[in-house]
Amino acid sequence: MKQSLLFTKTRKDAPKDEVSKNAELLIRAGFIHKDMAGVYSLLPLGLKTMNRIVEVIRKEMNAIGGQEVELTALQSKEIWEKSGRWDDKTVDNWFKTKLKNDTELGLAFTHEEPLTKLMTEYLRSFRDFPVYVYQFQTKFRNETRAKSGIMRGREFLMKDLYSFSRDEKEHGEFYEKVKEAYLNIFSEVGLGEKTFTTFASGGSFSKYSHEFQTLTEAGEDMIYVHEAKKIAINKEVLNDEVLNDLGLKRDELVEKKAVEVGNIFSLGTRFSDAFDLKYVDEKGEKKSAVMGSYGIGPGRVMGTIAEVLSDEKGLVWPASVAPFDMHLIALGESATAKALEIYTDLSKKGVEVLFDDRDARAGEKFADSDLIGIPTRIVVSDKTLAEESVEIKDRKTGETSMKKISEFLNEN
RNA sequence: CGGAGCGUGGUGUAACGGCUAACAUUCCUGUUUUGGGAACAGGCGACUCCGGGUUCGAAUCCCGGCGCUCCGACCA
User: Fold this and answer.
1) Which nt sits closest to A19, CA to C1'?
2) Distance of alpha carbon A405 from its chain centroid, rounded?
3) CB A107 within 8 A of CB A140
4) A128 neighbors A282 (Cβ within 8 angstroms)
5) Strand B positions with any atom < 7 Å from protein CB?
6) What is the pTM of this model?
7) How does pLDDT run across A167-183, given as a tens digit for each residue?
8) Axis crossing angle, helix A44-63 with helix A168-188, rounded to the nearest 10
9) What does A174-192 look like in DSSP terms, one character per residue?
């Protein structure tokens, strides 16, 4: 894309009502726009990045047998009463609304209920199992306090996967597969080193659930990290029993602040019982499906990347999720003409290039480029053209090299 | 939901209760410039969040609302 056509502009100052680093950088670079507290619109660069993150997650979900759907955000009161989660006393973050005829509706904050109900129409026999269903869907949560930029919003995209298994054993095996898939995802988006599988409260059907916690001061959870084993314990459940279960000693653990970028949960038969999701087994007996739910917030992942990987000059995107592969910067008129040829060539080959064809000075272009954080910067100027070359700079390491244009185009 | 702070051009800031609300930046015009947010000149842009009140006079003081941020509680 030609940068001259990009309607967003970078800014030197963030609005003063943004204190969190993620929102400050993402707003300054033109990725997001704040509409209300906890409600952000995605601008072209932000949407491209979000889509890349979604694609990484989708690939992993498909690899473990997930089938993608998209359920509705509008929910009828009846089904949530069945599971006992309609009452505001039980779930205090509902957004509720009404039809013209006064029928009450809710905006979904999760989808166990509607999906379980939906699956009762399709799952009858043990032969129909197991089934893994996931979606990328906008969730609404009426948070009493939105905070930390896009890290805790009231409207946000969520990837939620639900598993339907025949029994605990089958469920347990899939649960482990999801754990692996999640670790793949977080390492692929550049958060691997700082993300820890964390033991957290499991609810009534299993002792523990697992959170994926990324170390950052911007987080709101306190976890106890075992660096060597690459696991952690959420402060909420830290006690002697847990330490004993995991074979850890208290003094091996280090207290750290972290943000929960993912969470996986065994649900047992809580929802299948509520909605009578039963199947007939080999012996003709009726059994309740065993369920699990598995969430990742792509927006929170984006915010976490902004928090964790950025530097004093701006954002630093890993190649896997960057809005563009390359930032092509032309300095001067003749260089712009040559850069256009390079841009056209790369685009034909499917390389995603942001081409800074603006009539602006070098300093401004470099500053913008650093702020936006595309992994590779290609500079074309009279200086490089004198050697029939381009300059290649790595955003993360700052390493710079020159390469002949012909050679560069052959490689990309 | 409890506590604290803050609302002034698009953005960031300034202005003792007193002249035409100032500065920087962004944006527009022109000249000059062209490898790290250039320089000069000119210009556009604000009923000072909304509604009341006090006062000869309110951006400034008081009351109410709305909004935003932070701390805490909450986060199935």
Assistant:
1) B69
2) 36
3) yes
4) no
5) 1-2, 10-13, 25-27, 33-38, 67-76
6) 0.97
7) 999 999 999 999 999 99
8) 140
9) HHHHHHHHHHHHHHHTT-G
